[in-house]
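Hi V.,

You were right to ask for the full record rather than a summary. Here it is.
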Amino acid sequence: MDEHYSSAKVELRKAPQLTLVTAIAVVRGIEKATGIDVEIKWPNDLLIQGRKVAGILTEMQADPDQVNSVIIGIGINVNQSSFPKEVTEIATSLSLETGKSFPRAAIIAHIFNEFQWLYDAYLTKGFSFLKPLWEARNITLGKEIVARTPKATLEGIAEEIDEEGVLILRDKQGTTHRIYSADIDLLKK
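Predicted structure:
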């Protein structure tokens, strides 16, 4: 492993940004490998025409004052030709969207190439440099959503993500909430 990466320090409060950086890399990698437009639903779902094609899970191991390691898992529906009936309306694959089969190694290579320069930029310039790339692909901001957190279920407008990648939601009473992690549903009007 490159010494630059193994010695990089990510602040504990900024570690959730790595999910957003990864989302940018996966979206760009899939688009370069397949030509398909992919959108990001905060914080970790990737969609094609409203149907989930990929997801990102990030697990952090940390002490109270520092991040020791971050494990990022990426699941992509590549060549599936069908799904169980209970998820047919909400899931898709790259193959279903194009009618083509894709070599997984090529998709992974594109994602890793994207992640390498994005992670470098993240370490040297910070998330604020990458935030516009995330915002350009997002489908959450400006929409009415339901956010299910471990403590509460909130409904309101997803106004923005801040410089830390935290979702800012304004409820119907005008109160803003900072959401660090949640299951999000977009409300259809």
